[in-house]
Specification:
heterodimer, A: 114 residues, mainly beta, 6-stranded mixed β-sheet, 5-stranded antiparallel β-sheet, 0% helix, B: 116 residues, 7-stranded mixed β-sheet, 4-stranded antiparallel β-sheet, 1 helix, 11 strands, 3% helix, globular
Chain lengths: 114, 116
């Protein structure tokens, strides 16, 4: 039972354009969401997070949007740069019932072409 | 900055061998985790620990065990390695919920294990 789903295994975007990575979840108890970025042969690095009390969080070129009614979140990268090429994982947690555990999606491989 | 280190970046073992993967974090985090990453499956939780000597099963604990004798160190043990345990193994740590109110986990660089 995949509680967090990233339905697009890959995404290709031109440098300077917007990248939109999507993530859906099924568990309505999830109240904290994170995005991680992973380069080959390295561990994931934390990128940005959002609490369920918000619908948007911005950090530089990265913005995460949360639509609780649709159980959907998305990561926008504007403008996209070749160095953004990596695998992006979304993750979710139920802070108060399963605090400490993260449930990860399958990942989306982003390729930003010069 | 949080630093999570893993004992090996690449490891090749034979079927049936006992394998130890070590993870050390230097930020006094209570929580530590072991995941495996496989293409198309994302990160799957094997075991986690909220404190020294404590351990809990994750989603795929079969064939694995863990040890947490010191707060900074969390070991993953493959009792008898099999070819289907060939994978990227990732260790992570985090503060307890009360410390930051978030579940941000910090990852090590990973160990690419190949079982022949």
């Amino acid at each position: 039972d995949q509680q967090v789903k990233q339905n697009s295994p890959s995404l290709s975007v031109q440098e300077g354009r917007i990248s939109i990575l999507n993530c859906d979840y099924t568990n309505s108890m999830f109240d904290y969401f994170l995005w991680y970025k992973k380069y080959p042969a390295e561990g994931p690095t934390f990128l940005i997070s959002i609490s369920s009390i918000k619908d948007k969080n911005e950090d530089g070129r990265f913005t995460v949007f949360l639509n609780k009614s649709a159980k959907h979140l998305s990561l926008h990268i504007v403008p996209s740069q070749p160095g953004d090429s990596a695998v992006y994982f979304c993750a979710a947690s139920d802070l108060y019932n399963q605090g400490g555990k993260l449930i990860f999606g399958q990942g989306t491989e982003l390729s930003v072409k010069p | 900055d949080v630093k999570v280190t893993q004992s090996s970046r690449y490891l090749v073992k034979r079927t049936g061998e006992k394998v130890f993967l070590e993870c050390v974090q230097d930020m006094d985090h209570e929580n530590m985790f072991w995941y495996r990453q496989d293409p198309g499956l994302g990160l799957r939780l094997i075991y986690f620990s909220y404190d020294v000597k404590m351990k809990e099963k994750g989603d795929i604990p079969e064939g694995y065990s863990v040890s947490r004798e010191k707060k900074e160190r969390f070991s993953l043990i493959l009792e008898s390695a099999s070819t289907n345990q060939t994978s990227m193994y990732l260790c992570a740590s985090s503060l307890p919920l009360g410390g930051r109110g978030t579940d941000t986990q910090y990852f090590g660089p990973g160990t690419r294990l190949t079982v022949l």
